[in-house]
Amino acid sequence: MSVTKAGTGARPEEREAPRAGGQAGSATAALTAAVLGFFVITLDVSGVNVALPAVGRDLGGSLSGLQWVADSYTLMFAALMLSAGALSDAVGARRAYAWGLGLFTLASLACGLAPTVGALTAARVVQGSAAAVMVPASLALIRQAFPDPDERARGIALWTVGGAVAIAAGPVLGGLLTTEWNWRTVFFLNVPAGLAALATLARAARSARQPVVFDLPGQVTAVLALAALTFAVIEGGHHGLTTTVLSAAAVAVVAGVAFTAVEARRRAPMLPLELFRQRGVSVPVVAGFACNAAFYGGVFVLSLYFQEQRGQSAFSAGLMFVPMAVITAHFNYFSPKGVSRFGPRSVVVAGLLTGAVGCGGLAAVGTGTPWWVTAALMIPLGIGGALAMPALTSLMLDSVAAERAGTAAALLNTSRQAGGALSIAVFGALLAGDFARGMAESLALAACLLVANALGAAALLPRRR
Fold first, then answer.
1. Which InterPro entries match (predicted)?
2. Are strands 212-213 and 2-3 parallel, antiparallel or unpaired?
3. What's this model's pTM, rounded to 2 decimal places?
4. Residues 71-122 pLDDT 10s
5. Where are the domains of the chain?
6. H-type alpha helices, 184-278
7. How many CB atoms within 10 Å of residue 264?
8. CATH 1.20.1250.20 holds for 20-214+270-460
């Protein structure tokens, strides 16, 4: 993707319009809409995870089918986000966000009405595609609304709080809705929330357009590589190394190589590879992958563990996430203060190591472990992401030019969602045999991944920025 400054070439009607309630009111509207939208799209990960056993009982889905219900969303979320960043730059962040939010709301309605696992998975594909448009546009909105770096850091922290609260509290809400009504209400909840976000967005300032060139070969190869890899991991875990699984793995490798070759040779690539030469870009991309792999994968495994192994109801399982949810929300806001005082390196490393402690402790729990011990061990996992992600996001956006904000936001969140999708695929495959052993191996793997990234961040990032 090629992005240049709009300059005087931007059409007058697409330049930033006067803000009806003043600059502060318009910025608040943009931030509120961005936080609310990010909350609902993240809620559709954690809230749906705790409802998966009920979906399986109602629609007759197998474990692999339930993995696809979860992964079809995160897969499209990850695969389309780079092009979605280009769309945000091309049509303006506010317009792109409105398109994505409207489509997400309609897809949520379709999910709630789905008669089969296949129909639900298809609707989740549309949901994930819409979410891919929303995330880079929401971050671009925040960057536009808050040009001052300190104010922007606080805005990003609040945006991250919305996602952190959703992914941590989602199991509680999803469990309550599933237990008291049914799993379909988890999706129906998005409809009024989406309409409220659209109403708030109308009060935000218009966004300037940026000239872009869409990279169709890069997008096709990216989708093919991620989809084939996810298919190979999920199906391989349940059926072994069949011809179909090996073929899918081969397609993933070929498509991945093709994607790299296309992006290196195109004059207007979707993903400018030179971005990775900046440590302020490469470290957040890799560490963001690790954070989401640990968190998304952990929530997926624990949701099944509470219900399938401990025999808890969906609501009871959701309540296990309450301590983590409450504490996570507070630490998201502490992160920018820590960055201002100690620099991003210290905050990122501390967050990654804290998350690793949580995963390591959870790897040792079993059906006989007291519930309060398990709940307590989940807290460091939430704190780790709450500390690291705001710092990583601010570091990423501060490392690129303003006109590449959409691309940078898309790249970071592509990496994060890919981490979530692949962790669900890998952890689900490990659970397919002996659940207890698979759970321990999954969480130990997540802990090792976080420790490795903490060491990498400590070595590559400067002590102060």
1. MFS, MFS_dom, MFS_trans_sf
2. antiparallel
3. 0.74
4. 888 888 877 877 777 777 777 778 888 889 999 999 999 999 999 988 999 9
5. 20-214+270-460, 215-269
6. 184-188, 190-201, 216-239, 243-265
7. 12
8. yes
